[in-house]
Amino acid sequence: MPNQFPTVQKTMQQLKCCVLIPTYNNHKTLRRVIDGVLAYTSQIVIVNDGSTDNTETILKDYSELAQIHVATNKGKGNALQLGFKKAATLGYDFALTIDSDGQHFPEDIPTFLHALQVESDKNILFIGARNMSQSDVPGKSSFGNKFSNFWFWFETGISLQDTQCGYRLYPLKEINQLHLITPKFEFEIEVIVKAAWSGTRVKNIPIKITYDEVERVSHFRTVPDFARISVLNTWFVIVAVFYIKPRDLYRKFKKKGFRKFLKEDLLGSNDSPRKKALSIALGIFIGLSPLWGFHTIIVLFLAVALRLNTAIAFAFSNISLAPFIPVVLFLSLKIGALITGEDLVYTFDDMVSNLGFLTHLKTYIIGSISLSILGAVSFGFLGFLILKIFNRKKIAVTNG
C-alpha cells in the first residue's frame, strides 16, 4: 500500500521511530492492521508469536518489512521484548506498539508522534487512554483497567487513566536496559512499573478504540492471566513499600536539603494546610511509636493509603533518628511511669549507656504510645496553625 501521509513518514524517520506489531492467530484482522499502518509509514517490525493459523502466509506478502517468526507461542511479553531488541538493532530509538486484533486505529499514529515531539525530555513512555465508558467496551476490560490503574498508582505514585492499553510509544534505549522477565500479558504491567521506577516518565494520551466481537480474537485468559497479574502486583507492592518509596524519598530529601524541603514540599506544596498537618501528625506518631525498624515502611504505607503527603510524613517520621533516640526513650519511659504509677529511677544517662530500661517494657510501650499521640496532636495542631497563617499570607501576596 503506498504511503498516503509523507509528512508522518518523515517525522517517523526524524524521530527514529518504528511501529511494532506483535501478532498471534489474528489472521482476520492482521492484513487490515498492516495496510492501515503502511498508509503512514513503512518503518514496521512484525513479530509472529508462533501463530498456527495462516498468519505466516499473510506475512509473505509483506516480505519488505522487518519480521521475526517465533516457532512456538510464548506470549505477548516475549514477543514485545524480541521486537524491542530487533528495532534497536535496526537503529530505531522508539517503538510504537499496536495490537493486531484491529481494536486500535492507525490514524492515531500522528497523535503519538506529536506528543513525543513537544516533549523536551524524550525519556518518556506514552500509553493510549481508551474511553472505557464506550458502549462496546467489555465489562471485564473496564474492571481490569480500574484494578490495574489503582495498583500502578500505589506502586509508582503516578495516576493514569489507562494502564492496560497495548497502543504505546516506548523509548527503546531505556526499556532495553530494564531487567524484564514476564513473558505474557503481565509484561505490559511489569514494563511500565519498572520504567517508572527507573526514571522514565509515563503519560496517557487519548486514542480511539473499537471492539468488533465478530473479527476480534482476544487471547487473554481471564482466570490464569488475571492471577499472574495479581501475583506480579503483589510482588511490586512489597518492593515499592520496602525499597522504592524509601529510596525515592531519601534521594529527594538528600538532594534538596532540609531548607529546600521546607520551602518546596512543606510550604510550597499545593496540598491544603489540613492535609499537610495530618501528614506531619502521621509522621510524628509513627516516628515516636515503639515500632522500631518498621517506621519507614509503615509511614509510607499509611501515607499512601490515607492519601496524605508522603514526603512530609516521611520527613517527620525521622524524629527518631539516632541522635534523638535516647531522648525519645527517656520521655517514653517517664510518661509511662506517670501513667502506671511505677517508681523508676532511670536518668537520661541510663538511656545512653545501657538498655536496662527494657526490663520495664510494659511501662515503656504505654509511655511510647502516649508520647506518640501527644506528639502527633501537638505537632499536627502547631503545624496547621503555622501553615494556615503562611497560606493566608501567600494568598494575600498573590492577590495583591
Question: What topology does this entry show?
Answer:
Layout: H1 6-15, E1 17-23, H2 27-38, E2 44-49, H3 55-59, E3 66-70, H4 76-89, E4 94-97, H5 109-117, E5 124-129, H6 139-156, E6 168-171, H7 172-175, H8 187-197, E7 201-206, H9 222-267, H10 273-288, H11 295-305, H12 310-317, H13 325-340, H14 348-353, H15 361-399
Parallel strand pairs: 1-2, 1-4, 2-3, 5-7
Antiparallel strand pairs: 4-6, 5-6
Helix pairs in contact: 1-5, 6-8, 6-9, 8-9, 9-11, 9-12, 10-11, 10-12, 10-15, 11-12, 13-15
Short overview:
The protein is an alpha/beta fold and about 400 residues long. It has 15 helices and seven strands.
What can you see in these coordinates?
The structure is a single chain. The chain has 400 residues and is α/β, with parallel strands linked by helices. It has 15 helices and seven strands. β1, α2 (27-38) and β2 form a beta-alpha-beta unit. It is elongated. The termini are far apart.
